[in-house]
Amino acid sequence: MTDPKLKVLISAERIQARIRELGEQISADYPTGRLQMICILKGACFFMTDLARAMKRDVFLDFMGISTYGKGKTSSGEVKVTKDLDISLEDADVVIVEDIVDSGVTLNYLMHLLEQRRPKSIRIAALLDKPERRLRPVHVSYVGFQIPDRFVVGYGLDFDERYRNLDDICVLDEE
Ligand code: IMP
Ligand code: MG
To answer: pTM of this prediction?
Structure first.
């Protein structure tokens, strides 16, 4: 896709190399037990499928739909569950798989929600982290890349539902 508004920030090669490292690290941290990965739709779907294949052990996969952002680039600040999990989390080691942590509103809410379902443990893996933007505290155990405060698209991330299928993560400039 050649689009003058897009500038590559993290190439597909770097994304894939980092995900292989994360897969090895997470696998080593959970040598045994039932490991439940939860993909936050839709942005994390590419990350989840690559991360699951980079794991050195058996994992269970499930999906959860959350919406915070309306159209465009600003958060509504409101979190809504649009699709709940199919499975119980009781006694499972849970890893929430998210595309990006921005204000932290989504993951802060989600951690509280899922902790009530009595998992054995719960951690967060996020491909991208924009620490400068944090409004709510969130502890992210596994971070792919820390990025500056720029709006990015690709590899699952969208702007008004566009650009999700780019291989690279790109900055979207609209001047
Ligand atoms: P938070 O609740 O503010 O941390 O927002 C997290 C959600 O906002 C992510 O799951 C993304 O869907 C969206 N988001 C935040 N920053 C970006 C960005 O730079 N590009 C695309 N989506 C983003
Ligand atoms: Mg999202």
So the answer is: 0.94
